[in-house]
């Protein structure tokens, strides 16, 4: 159901507009035309480029910062204070991830996906590459599912 709701938003030729990178591409009209007029380019943008870019911006950088801040504040705050900092940054990342995908409604769609991806990142935070790669793979599979469901039939 979540995937189908996400696929409702489509570009001019019926391809899903589900990524932040789709919004950024509109800043370069020639690139936008190239991506929206070629299904393979749109698929690449949604399934490869968007997960790599979005996971770096919305997960790896802010959540790594949260982990560093929690470590720096180790002596100054009790355990609960550090967890509160992590939780606040985690929720803010999810809200921004949802809003960056479009509107307030996207907080309930991509924001929830952001919660899942953020939890996955924090679960593997002992190895930053592993955490990033796991999030990119799940994000790519999600985007592919949305892309495919929007283009079936």
Please give a structural write-up.
- This protein is mainly α and 153 residues long.
- It is elongated, with a radius of gyration of 17 Å.
- Helices cover 78% and strands 0% of the residues.
- It contains 7 helices and no strands.
- α4 runs antiparallel to α5, α4 packs across α6 and α5 crosses α6.
- The N terminus is likely disordered.
- The chain has one domain.
- The longest helix is centred in the middle third of the chain and has 34 residues.
Question: What does this entry show, briefly?
Answer:
The protein is 78% helix and 0% strand. The protein has seven helices and no strands.
Features:
153 residues; mainly alpha; 78% helix
Q: Give the domain tally.
A: 1
Percent helix: over 70%
Number of helices: 7
- What low-confidence regions span 5 or more consecutive residues with pLDDT below 50? 1-16
- The computed structural class is mainly alpha
Strands, total number = 0
Radius of gyration: 17 Å
The largest sheet, given as strand count, sense and whether it forms a barrel, is:
none
Termini separation? 17 Å
Q: What general form does the structure show? A: elongated
| Secondary-structure element order, N to C | HHHHHHH
Layout of helices and strands:
Blueprint: H1 2-7, H2 20-25, H3 29-37, H4 39-72, H5 79-100, H6 105-123, H7 128-151
Helix pairs in contact: 3-4, 4-5, 4-6, 4-7, 5-6, 6-7
């Amino acid at each position: 159901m979540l995937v189908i709701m996400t696929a409702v938003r489509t570009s001019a030729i019926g391809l899903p507009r589900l990524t932040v990178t789709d919004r950024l591409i509109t800043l370069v009209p020639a690139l936008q035309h190239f991506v929206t007029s070629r299904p393979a380019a749109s698929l690449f943008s949604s399934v490869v480029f968007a997960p790599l870019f979005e996971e770096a911006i919305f997960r790896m950088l802010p959540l790594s910062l949260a982990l560093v801040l929690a470590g720096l504040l180790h002596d100054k705050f009790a355990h609960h204070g550090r967890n509160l900092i992590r939780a606040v940054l985690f929720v803010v990342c999810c809200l921004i991830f949802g809003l960056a995908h479009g509107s307030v409604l996207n907080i309930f769609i991509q924001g929830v996906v952001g919660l899942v991806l953020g939890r996955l990142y924090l679960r593997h935070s002992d190895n930053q590459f592993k955490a990033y790669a796991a999030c990119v793979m799940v994000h790519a599979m999600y985007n592919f599912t949305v892309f495919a469901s929007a283009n079936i039939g």
